[in-house]
Amino acid sequence: MPPAAPLLLQPLDEPAAAARGIRLLLLRDDLTHSELPGNKWRKLKYNLQAAREQGHDKLLTFGGAYSNHIAAVAAAGRLSGLRTIGIIRGEELAHRPLNATLTRARADGMQLRFVSREAYQRRHESGWVAELQQDFGPAYVLPEGGSNALALPGCAELLTELRTRTSFDYVAVACGTGGTLAGLVTGLLPPETAVGIAALREGELLRAEVQRLLGNESASSNWVLHSGFHHGGYARFSAGLLDFIRQFQARHGVLLDPVYTGKLLWGVLQLLEQDYFRPGSTLVAVHTGGLQGWAGFRQRFGKRSAWWPTEAAR
Question: Residue limits of the Tryptophan synthase beta chain-like PALP domain (predicted)?
């Protein structure tokens, strides 16, 4: 695969941070890889290595119809010469015509299988996964969102790279399946703290998943998960969130997405207003990408907003 680009740190001039003497930086991990931006590249890095070492020639994974993970695995398969299979939540007729995410995934060579929402709930059952492998042949299985033990070291490397550029007190990241936050926790050095902003309602379930991924490190006190900034739940949004994303882009020239990074920066600025972060500290928010999802949002919700980012803005 093409190598990742060096990290770009962008200072954010925000009154809530300046008033407290806090240095607020945006880590543009969305720019580190041209086709696998942000945490997707990091989560897949060691999984792809393991797939090769185990002799697999195909990847099998799971996701929704607008999933960043599905898009990333399809692109990774094309770039690395591995076949890819995507088990997609929802009946096939409900996804016709294919949206931009699935169209791109298929163009990248991914074989799509649509399953009912009821069947999709079995994605964690080893017996059902074995049945899928009987249909498709032996495959390296990636969980939904790519969050597993091998995703953690790839995400932890972000902090190693970051320390070559600056010291920091807090690193904040959006959380969907918990793998990125767990990976960051494994890479922290005292007294650094990881701050997760949940993108979905189920904050307690997400917290338990992060602890499961961390294993023996789950009792660590150097991380926290905030679950009050989800704007209605996963892939849900509010008019206020869209307005915030529009204003953020106008102020900083950076487009956020409404599923993850928009909620991250919304939450970070709210926590700054609430004096959550120590005065005089350095806070780094991580832009993990996800901008491919805008095409799907325009397709699904275009009539509900007077503003959607243009292709040029992305």
Answer: 18-289
- For residue 109, count CB atoms less than 10 angstroms from its CB and return exposed for 0-12, middle for 13-18, buried for 19 or more: middle
Helix locations, the chain, DSSP H: 15-18, 39-53, 68-80, 100-107, 117-120, 126-136, 151-163, 179-187, 203-214, 239-252, 261-273, 293-301
2: three-class secondary structure by DSSP = coil
- Could you give the CA distance from residue 284 to residue 268 in angstroms, rounded to a whole number? 10
Q: Is the model's pLDDT at 168 over the cut of 80?
A: yes
Give Cβ neighbours of residue 205 (< 8 Å, ≥ 6 apart): none
SS (H, E, C) 207-234: HHHHHHHHHHHCCCCCEEEECCCCCCCC
Closest CA to 76 of 115, 49, 116, 112: 49
Q: How many CB atoms lie within 10 A of CB 21?
A: 10
User: Residue 64's pLDDT band (boundaries 50, 70, 90)?
Assistant: very high
Give mean pLDDT, residues 134-145: 95
Q: Is the dihedral angle over the CA atoms 239, 241, 246, 250 positive or is it negative?
A: positive
* Exposure letters 217-252 (e unless 16+ CB within 10 A, then b): eeeeeebebbbebbbeebbebeeebbebbbebeeeb
Nearest to 168, CA basis, from 195, 197, 192, 188: 192
pLDDT digits (tens, 9 = 90+) for 223-272: 999 999 888 767 677 889 999 999 999 999 999 999 899 999 999 999 99
> Which residues are paired to 115 by β-bridges?
89
- What was the pLDDT predicted at 301? 65
261: number of Cβ within 10 Å: 29
Task: Please determine, for residue 217, whether its predicted confidence score (pLDDT) is greater than 60.
Answer: no
Tens of pLDDT, residues 197-209: 999 888 899 999 9
Q: Which domains does the chain have, with CATH numbers?
A: 9-38+148-304 (3.40.50.1100), 39-146 (3.40.50.1100)
Q: The pTM is what?
A: 0.91
